[in-house]
Amino acid sequence: MTINYLYFTAFSMEHLDTVLILMAVLAALYSVASKINISYPIVLVMAGLGISLIPGLPEVQITPEIVFLLFLPPLLFDAARHTSWHDFKKHSDSIGRLAIGLVLFTTAGVAVCAYYMIPGFSWPLAFVLGAIVSPPDAVAATSAIKGLRLPKRLVAILEGESLVNDATALIAYRYAVIAVASGGAFVLWQAALEFVLVAAGGVMIGTAIGFAFTWVLKKLFNNPIVETILTLILPFVSYIAAEDVGVSGVLSVVATGLVISWRAHEIFSFQTRMQMNGFWDTLIFLLNGFVFILIGLELPVIVNDVSGHPLPHLIGYGLLISAVVIVIRLIWIFPTVRVSDWLRKRRGITVSDKTNGQLFILGWSGMRGVISLATALALPLVMDNGEEFPQRGTILFITFVVILVTLVFQGLTLPLLIKWLGVSETEEREMLEERRLRQVLVNSTLSFVNETLAPRLAEPALAEVQGRLERQGRYLDGILADDGVCNEDDLGRQRELFAQYLESE
Fold this sequence. Notes:
Strand content: under 5%
CATH class of the largest domain: Mainly Alpha
Order of helices and strands: HHHHHHHHHHHHHHHHHHHHH
CATH architecture of the largest domain: Up-down Bundle
Number of helices: 21
Membrane topology: Multi-pass membrane protein
GO cellular component, one term: plasma membrane
Helix content: over 70%
Structural class: mainly alpha
Number of domains: 2
Function: Na(+)/H(+) antiporter that extrudes sodium in exchange for external protons.
Oligomer: single chain
Family: Belongs to the monovalent cation:proton antiporter 1 (CPA1) transporter (TC 2.A.36) family.
Largest sheet: none
Protein name: Na+/H+ antiporter
Distance between the termini: 56 Å
Shape: globular
């Protein structure tokens, strides 16, 4: 993808007042979302949609350059650096089925529906639409499930899927657009080969940059300001380096983030982690906020580009494709997971039980977002023969409807479905896990005191430290005596004991 770097200078000067106003609006809307207990991306999209309908306001346009270079690298990097490499590797088969298999299956399913149900759509155009709406969005997915207390395995799979599925969709999108613009068709084996090369190249470049920065950061250990600045630069370096050599910038950033996550304990001091986390939390909130509110503000621009179909028909097409996207994800997940588990059991591999409720929530969490909108906006205006790109406005409008339906409808119903299906982790189980962790810490600390510090401490000080740790351990041992999930009668007693333990600290 060609990136117009000079665009950002003009953008920053001409829209500074708009950016400042949006920052104030974001802060206010986030407070509202917290008060009404609704995921803030939904509130921001709806607010942007409402603001866009106010007469006399200037149109706000999202360009692909802004999304792919300004927003995407830091958002992907932050998601990757918060991803456990152990969990990512552990669930790599599930992530691969969703990020590659499901994206291609969705692309094909949407293409079939669009070809037969939407007038004027050729097969290449139908595949363009399928590739655009096929990948769930990393920002939308992580924001939608945050705070819903889903099982850790489901969270790891959803976050891992959203990190790498963009590469699959963008390659399918590229070939479909070439087929439309040139009036020809693409060769399947060439597309498959390019996917492997582009993906592998992106991973290799991102990994190399991650290790290079790890080496640099080790030399700057315990310099929080410089290290925080370097982590801000890192995702942009990784993305641009990969795109400039023609491989996946998305996978490059993800690979870099995973390397940093894996080596974080070696390269960042406690002070750096504290400062860096505060900085990145604020930055990601602002970027997420701008992304979702700009999606809503984009409606007038999209409507103005539509021609050739009545508006009610376009809304109907958008709802149809939205339903296809949702249903295809559910159809894919249930059989592939069951078959995979059966094959693993046949090979003697231990498989964790997955309820139908968990699989349904996994299927219901495929919210689309800014990546789909950016790829739709990146469609060329004209083809190689100089004619207008066919159905461009229609594709844009349908994409917007799919984003709105999946983000708002699925996002609003997701908490209700999680509660109804009983998928969320119970409060008792979370408390039990926390207490087990505290017990491990107490036992490890006591061992360290007895083995390492005992010869160096005066007897009264040693006795006081040992007594306090042993007392804390006894409290926790009492709490954890029953290894099962606590019932309501036991919970009050456990809380009382745990309060005593905290007071003893």
